[in-house]
UniProtKB/TrEMBL annotation:
The keyword Hydrolase does not apply. It holds the Pfam family Glucodextran_B. This is HTH cro/C1-type domain-containing protein. The chain crosses the membrane at residues 100-125. It comes from the Bacteria. GO terms for molecular function: DNA binding.
Length: 229
């Protein structure tokens, strides 16, 4: 059965390229390229990490990216996301419920219980709102994206009254918690860190990895990958 590893290795050898050759163009370490060609997804930090590098590699080799990703999903889910489910059926013994006589004392007790539950529910809501980690959504860039401009636009949203840091630099928020800023990229692989801290000191972290390649380099890589021998 055809595998992702077979597809990648066959196409690379067909183009007579080494892993080091490809590393020079797409800036992905040879050990990750080798892991993809051997089907060893344990070398990656997670599914998103492996999928991002695979997409970049497949694009460089001029493969059908959607087809390669379809094979990847099948392999990853079958080998690394095996789950088991247990279904339990319980039989309940029927019984006759005792008759309830409604008296003023019962009504007052019911009202008291409702108020008590509501009070503790409110306290729990306040606790979750102010003591939980702030929500942090990154709209752009997408993970493992290839960028051809050294200026990268970053957008997202976090909770209002939080303090946001991008690559350890404080970024101002709009009144609704949204943010937008631009940073400069260095050639090759760039890791962008996000940290949101609410007023109680609770933190949420995220990160995005992008690859900056100049338009000239992208053109040269594309032309090189199309050379036939």
């Amino acid at each position: 059965m055809k595998t992702v590893a077979d597809i990648l290795k066959t196409q690379r050898e067909k183009k007579k390229l080494t892993l080091e050759d490809i590393h020079k163009f797409i800036k992905i370490h040879p050990r990750y390229l080798s892991a993809l060609e051997s089907g060893d997804y344990s070398a990656f930090s997670g599914k998103v990490h492996a999928k991002g590098f695979l997409k970049i590699y497949a694009q460089f080799l001029n493969l059908n990216v959607e087809e390669v990703l379809a094979f990847f999903r099948r392999e990853y889910e079958s080998d690394y996301e095996k789950t088991s489910s247990i279904i339990e059926n319980k039989k309940f013994k029927t019984f006759d419920a005792p008759k309830l006589i409604i008296t003023p004392a019962v009504v007052l007790s019911g009202v008291f219980i409702v108020l008590l539950v509501g009070f503790f529910g409110y306290l729990f809501y306040q606790y979750r709102t102010y003591s939980g980690a702030p929500k942090l959504d990154i709209y752009s860039p997408k993970n493992s994206q290839i960028i051809t401009s050294e200026n990268l636009d970053i957008t997202g949203k976090t909770e209002m009254e939080s303090v946001l840091f991008i690559n350890n630099q404080k970024v101002n928020l709009n009144t609704d918690g949204s943010f937008a800023t631009t940073i400069k990229l260095k050639e090759g692989l760039n890791t962008i860190s996000f940290l949101s801290v609410n007023k109680l000191g609770k933190e949420s972290e995220d990160a995005r990895t992008v690859i900056f390649r100049s338009a000239k380099e992208v053109k040269e890589a594309s032309e090189s990958s199309k050379i036939t021998y």
